[in-house]
Amino acid sequence: MEDISWLQLTILILASFRLTHLIVFDEITSFLRDPFLTVTYEPDESGQEVRKIEIKGEGWRYWAGSLLSCHWCMGIWSSLLLVALHLWVPASFPLLLALAVAGAAAFIESRVYMG
Question: Residue 114: its pLDDT value, please?
Fold first, then answer.
């Protein structure tokens, strides 16, 4: 196994963050989640929109819905996939870099809008 530099590790961390968010939260990938769960948004007592998840089915379908609704769970699998790509498919670097840049931009944007 090759050593991973700090720069590569940083790219993998940011890429995993972005891929996880893409799969679990982004509208563009809702088609992946739709067979397994239903997401609705309801206001709480303070008027803030709260994400409500209803997982569909039983067995494997329920397991997949649980995975796709959990950023902690999906983060593990996203990380494993991206590390494997990095180690075994060097040509995947542009994809990893694009995800990392998007992840860093999302992190910065969330801090700017938080005040």
Answer: 74
Answer for the pair 99, 92: CB distance below 8 angstroms, yes or no: no
Place of tokens 């569909």: 56
Which of these, 88, 103, 84, lies nearest to 13 by C-alpha position?
103
As for how many domains the chain has, the answer is 1
Domain that holds residue 41: 6-113
- Residues 105-115 have a mean pLDDT of 87
Which pTM value belongs to this model?
0.89
